[in-house]
Amino acid sequence: MKRNSRLSLALHTLGHMAGDPARVRTSADIAEHAGTNPVVVRRVLGKLREAGLLTSEKGHAGGLARGPEKITLADVYLALDESLVATGEQEVASACSVENILQIKVESVLEDIERSLVERLAATTIAEVRETGAVNHG
Amino acid sequence: MKRNSRLSLALHTLGHMAGDPARVRTSADIAEHAGTNPVVVRRVLGKLREAGLLTSEKGHAGGLARGPEKITLADVYLALDESLVATGEQEVASACSVENILQIKVESVLEDIERSLVERLAATTIAEVRETGAVNHG
DNA sequence: GATTGATGCAACAGAGAAAGTTACATTAGC
DNA sequence: GCTAATGTAACTTTCTCTGTTGCATCAATC
Q1: What ipTM, to 2 d.p.?
Q2: Which residues of A touch B109 (CB under 8 A)?
Q3: Which domains does chain A have, with CATH numbers?
Q4: Does A113 score more than 90 pLDDT?
Q5: Taking the mean position of all CA atoms in its chain, how far away is CA A93?
Q6: Mean of the pLDDT values across residues A44-73?
Q7: Which residues touch strand D (CB under 7 A)?
Q8: Chain A hits for B99, Cβ within 8 Å
Q9: Could you say which of A8, A117, A130 has the minimum Cβ distance to residue B117?
Q10: Is residue A103 a contact partner of residue A62, using CB atoms and an 8 Å limit?
Q11: Which of B51, B76, B55 is nearest to B65 (CA)?
Q12: Considering all CA atoms of chain A, what is the largest pairwise distance in Å, rounded to the nearest integer?
């Protein structure tokens, strides 16, 4: 697993759950399919559950809290506390006021981009991930 | 410096150059203002120069290859070889075909998002970064 | 109610990437 | 030629995230 593995893994996992809700999947099953560790899967699932997207129970595997067409990629993204564009830093590093203004403006622009990204993510649901036909293999 | 420092630092540097083209700025100057190392600045500048955005020369400091209103954030983003959303992995990890299709679809969706992000970045120029009035301080 | 199996969580080790640093050859300006 | 800045190549440090182990908790089954 490399960069952005959490988001990819989360979508992978949710796609599985959306495709076969009845089938009880353990974190070990998902981990094996995703080529990673059960604990890593549970960490991601923990974030999703914390955000109210999943209803996993301690004793056994849980499921989606709502239909896959009601869960957007933005929900997942925000649940994972991702911030791919904006840095989140607002600290003043320089004594030069011109420098500060420039720094603040750069941050401001990046935050705008971040918001646009979330809006774009909100336009796609888990259900669409499973149905998207843009498969360019071969 | 933390995450996304390259993009932030690049915009920071370009913003400086756009604001005062006549003033020769050394990488040491920029590094001091940005709170980082001259070599780190030169690494970022090297990428930008490689992409044709800058015309830095060995002996002394260079400048913007074109006007700041003609350089978009997408130019900078692509110059830095950033790929914030898409993972770039197309490898087949599982023997299960259903698994493969899901994996490919997830990647496909993430690449769509990545393209949307670049489009959004292309809508903003360096000149706008300096002029954006959305400064929400204090 | 005991057993089994999966979860949630914490702690630690390992890998990987990026920043930071040093060093040096190259080149423009004086 | 001298000075100063660049471009680049190592190397070290730092940090984040994955991978791993261990264990208490809780549900399902008998």
Answers
A1: 0.88
A2: 11, 73, 124, 128-129, 132
A3: 5-131 (1.10.10.10)
A4: yes
A5: 31
A6: 87
A7: A 1, 5-6, 9, 35-40, 43, 57-60; B 2-3, 25-28, 38-39, 42-43, 45-46, 49, 56-62
A8: 33
A9: A117
A10: no
A11: B55
A12: 61
